């Protein structure tokens, strides 16, 4: 296995996001759901599983992932801001596209700790031969 193959399989450290969640468990759950792009149904199943087996009087988790996502939306973090653009008005309904400005997206990527070590700083020249059978 080449060195580059090993580097691709290394677990990357969690980027630290300065947020004020109600508690550590809440923040860890939202980070897990966000990092792995889990659906609301999956997130809610995790909450239900945790609450069933945690034996706590009061759950430290949100009642649902939807509630957790709303909490994040209200955090007012510049890196999480999306722009709402109407792309079409069809049959008296407006359809919107939510997007981040490209510069914000680049800033988010560059805010990840140790990101430069993941850049490809060298390349190999590969000769491509195209055969045409006509």
Helix percentage: 25-40%
Count helical runs: 5
- On the 0 to 100 scale, the average pLDDT is 77
Strand order of the largest sheet: 1-2
| Poorly predicted spans | 1-18
Most strands sheet? 2 strands, antiparallel
Indicate the overall shape.
extended
| SSE pattern, N- to C-terminal | HHHHEEH
The tally of beta strands, per DSSP, is 2
- As a whole number of angstroms, the C-alpha radius of gyration is 21 Å
Layout of strands and helices, then pairs:
Layout lengths: L2 H6 L15 H12 L4 H15 L10 H9 L9 E8 L2 E7 L2 H9 L24
Antiparallel strand pairs: 1-2
Structural commentary:
The chain has 134 residues and is of the alpha+beta class. It has helices at 3-8, 24-35, 40-54, 65-73, 102-110; strands at residues 83-90, 93-99. Strands 1-2 form a two-stranded antiparallel ribbon. The protein is extended. Residues 1-18 have low confidence and may be disordered.
Structural features:
single chain, 134 residues, alpha+beta, two-stranded antiparallel ribbon, 5 helices, disordered N terminus
